[in-house]
């Protein structure tokens, strides 16, 4: 697949950003390519377009599928797997936030509970800080559970209300 200069630039940038987000550069580049692609691509075409090993593409595609942002499709008369990205940017955002919560915040909540149980027998300063963290995470968890019930268009509307919400909060 031939990439335009703009598409090439975004794919390279997305890979660089992926490294900063804790995601393998190639995985992020695969995602950017699939997001921009006008049609589903097979693994060989992805490997050729990005000039990366087919094994790296296979690994990256599995990871992106585990994240829920890339899915397999099939074409009549073709035994190959083709891949496409979620293209609704708001749904993509929602899926990534939910997956990061599951992978990063939920384990932290478990450890925080364990630390609080141990800190009850420990020093006052540590216990106070842990309780502050717990209060923060409980508040964010309440917000997150509400976020999970929202459809992508509702997430977009909520995001666009930013300054209105601020003004409303100032009134109370």
3D shape: globular
Strand arrangement across the biggest beta sheet: 1-3-2
Number of structural units classed as domains: 2
Radius of gyration, rounded? 21 Å
Distance between the termini: 55 Å
In total, how many beta strands?
A: 3
Residues in β-strands, percent: 5-15%
In terms of structural class, how would the helical and strand content be classed? mainly alpha
Estimated helix fraction: over 70%
Low-pLDDT residue spans:
none
Q: Helical segment tally?
A: 8
Give the mean pLDDT.
93
Description:
- The model has no long low-confidence stretch (mean pLDDT 93).
- The longest helix is centred in the middle third of the chain and has 31 residues, at 89-119.
- Helix 1 packs antiparallel against helix 2, helix 3 crosses helix 4 (54-67) and helix 5 (89-119) runs antiparallel to helix 6 (124-149).
- This protein starts with a helix and ends with a helix.
- A three-stranded antiparallel beta sheet has the order 1-3-2.
- The protein is globular.
- It has two domains: 5-85, Orthogonal Bundle (Arc Repressor Mutant, subunit A), CATH 1.10.10.10; 89-170.
- The protein contains eight helices and three strands; from the N terminus they run ααβααββαααα.
- It is mainly alpha-helical.
Summary, kept brief:
With 172 residues, this protein is mainly alpha-helical.
Keyphrases for this structure?
Arc Repressor Mutant, subunit A, 2 domains, 3-stranded antiparallel sheet, 8 helices, 3 strands, globular
């Amino acid at each position: 697949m031939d990439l335009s200069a703009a598409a090439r630039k975004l794919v390279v940038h997305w890979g660089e950003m992926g490294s900063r987000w804790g995601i393998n550069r190639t995985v992020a580049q695969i995602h950017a390519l699939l997001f921009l692609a006008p049609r589903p691509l097979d693994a060989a075409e992805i490997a050729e377009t990005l000039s990366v090993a087919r094994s790296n593409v296979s690994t990256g595609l599995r990871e992106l599928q585990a994240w829920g942002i890339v899915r397999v499709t099939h074409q009549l008369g073709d035994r190959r797997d083709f891949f496409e990205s979620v293209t609704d940017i708001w749904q993509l955002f929602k899926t990534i936030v939910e997956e990061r919560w599951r992978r990063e915040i939920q384990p932290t909540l478990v450890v925080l509970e364990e630390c609080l149980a141990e800190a009850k027998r420990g020093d006052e300063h540590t216990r106070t800080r842990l309780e502050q963290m717990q209060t923060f995470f409980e508040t964010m968890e309440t917000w997150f559970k509400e976020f999970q019930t929202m459809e992508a268009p509702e997430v977009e509307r909520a995001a666009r209300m930013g300054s209105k919400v601020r003004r409303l909060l100032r009134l109370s």
